[in-house]
Amino acid sequence: MTAPEGGHLDPASWHAPVVGVIGGLGPAATAVFLDVLVRATDARSDQEHLDLLVSQHSSTPDRTAKILDTDGTAADPGPVIAADARMLERAGVDLLVLPCNTAHHFVRGVHESTSVPFLSIVEVTAAAAARAVEGTGRPVAVFATEGNVHAEVFQDALRDVGAEACVPDRALQDRINTIIYEQVKANRPVDRELFEGCVDEALAAGAGTVVLGCTELSVVYDQQGFRGDPRMIDSLTELARHTITAACRPLAPAFA
Amino acid sequence: MTAPEGGHLDPASWHAPVVGVIGGLGPAATAVFLDVLVRATDARSDQEHLDLLVSQHSSTPDRTAKILDTDGTAADPGPVIAADARMLERAGVDLLVLPCNTAHHFVRGVHESTSVPFLSIVEVTAAAAARAVEGTGRPVAVFATEGNVHAEVFQDALRDVGAEACVPDRALQDRINTIIYEQVKANRPVDRELFEGCVDEALAAGAGTVVLGCTELSVVYDQQGFRGDPRMIDSLTELARHTITAACRPLAPAFA
Predict the structure, then answer these.
(1) How high is the pLDDT of residue B96?
(2) Looking at the partner chain, which of B10, B44, B59 has a beta carbon nearest the beta carbon of A51?
């Protein structure tokens, strides 16, 4: 075997398949993703857990700012995300994941510049939501960033799996924005009741389930005691579950 | 600028200094470390957080098993840790950290094979503990893995900063081992009272403070509500604080 060059992983000591995480979008969500991966893997020692290479690239330009950009001045996260994906592929990862829903608007660049499999948080979450509302005739409420909703990331993915999306009205979206930007991303205390009120309002308006389609909302779900709550489908949890399965590891009972 | 090759970070889009995290030792502790870094940075948006490249190398051979190895059969984590450090350096990181205390027994290989600065969790924690007992005449209780205690990792570091170490007796060490191996590393519920009882026993026996010198105990400290508890000095928190300062970012008020 030749010595690894550049930033390559040494194939002799890394347990394949190695998962590459395009992270930092945002950084809190990536930390929670790694923690959920540990808790969701049925392992009895460190060595039974997944091997991952993680780019915690916090300074990646804001995704929503670019999607909503009207005068062409916002920095473009697309090339940065694609470059990180190529970096991880060249380092030797076998699978790529991106624990950020809004960034999926920019994944074409990842697909065009890498050849390792890419596991989509949006696709696995839309599939889980479609199963949750199957036969009910009810739509799926999409709680996401303004950019995600504007770019119709989840609306398209739900349509692809035969489910109908409903998006929050202005007042509800404003409250979701407050939780995402003024609380989680701003490192401030989260208003648990504000979050739960948003979920209940969407269900009362007719939704069959609520998709937490923004990893900052996944942080609230995880840290404020909503894990397992039947009212919602959490995108970060769905990605963790599918990542572990794709890496050929068993799921812990609470996540199976 | 030439295009980045291998697994190199694109210097145009990464915010220097980039921190390289030799992680996965164990994986839960690395996830908590990333989470504490986010909470301990005084930031108001994603982009103000640190940029990091993280090797979550869970399959790295067990550190304590190698230190306590009597018949030469245990796999050696030293070359794996050194190879990961080289990989991160070649990828372009500016600073290396290793969020695992026991692994510091093996860091000579990191020092010998890399030239970027290395921030030691053991040194920063020993310094904080020495300040905590200064003028009291009391020793510092070291709660760590069997391997860490056997290799005298913290005893040496405390001596270097003029403090005296005391290590648990057999019965107390057995209970600490239970928390580390049968609870945190085994992905099982943590016995909060068992943990707190260990701390109180060490203080009642004369220690001036307790160093949580194992990142699995840092997970307990973080997740069971001990943050800020004046009875203990947490190694992962000390490393996070010094990493943020070394990366020239401001500390959040609760961590300053």
Answers:
(1) 98
(2) B59
- By Cβ distance, the residue of B45, B50, B187 closest to A39 is B187
Q: ipTM greater than 0.85, yes or no?
A: yes
Give the CATH number, domain containing residue B206: 3.40.50.1860
Angstrom CA distances, A37 to A165, A239, A245, A249, stand at 28, 9, 11, 11
- The domain containing residue A90 runs over which residues? 19-120+239-255
B90/A6 Cβ within 8 A: yes
* Region A123-135 average pLDDT: 97
Q: Are residues B149 and B199 in the same domain?
A: yes
Indicate whether A49 and A145 sit together in one domain: no
Q: Do B30 and A34 lie within an 8 Å CB cutoff? A: yes
Which of A59, A181, A188, A216 to substitute to test the interface with B, most B CBs within 10 Å? A59
Q: What are phi and psi of B186, to 5 degrees?
A: -90, 5
- Of the pLDDT bands very low, low, confident and very high (cuts 50, 70, 90), residue B52 is very high
| Interchain contact, A87 vs B9, CB within 8 Å | yes
Pair (A150, A62) in one structural domain: no
Ranges B63-72, B186-195, B223-232, B238-247, most confident: B238-247
Element (H, E) at A237: helix A235-246
What phi-psi label fits residue B187: left (phi over 0), alpha (psi between -120 and 50 degrees) or beta? Answer: left
- B93 and B176 part of one domain: no
Please tell me the distance from the alpha carbon of residue B85 to that of residue B4, in angstroms, as a whole number.
19
B98 and B137 part of one domain: no
**Integer-rounded Cα radius of gyration of chain A:** 18
| In a domain? residue A7 | no
Is residue A166 part of the annotated active site? The answer reads no
pTM of the model: 0.93
List, for residues A46-78, the tens digit of each pLDDT value.
999 999 999 999 999 999 899 999 899 999 999
Q: Quote the pLDDT of residue A134.
A: 96
Q: A115 with A132, same domain?
A: no
Total tally of structural domains belonging to chain A: 2
Chain-chain contact of A10 with B87 (C-beta, under 8 angstroms)? yes
Among B13, B177, B184, the residue to mutate for chain A (most A Cβ within 10 A): B13
Is residue B214 annotated as part of the catalytic site, yes or no?
A: yes
Shared domain check, B143 and B226: yes
Question: B156, exposed or middle or buried, with CB in 10 Å at 0-12, 13-18, 19+?
Answer: middle
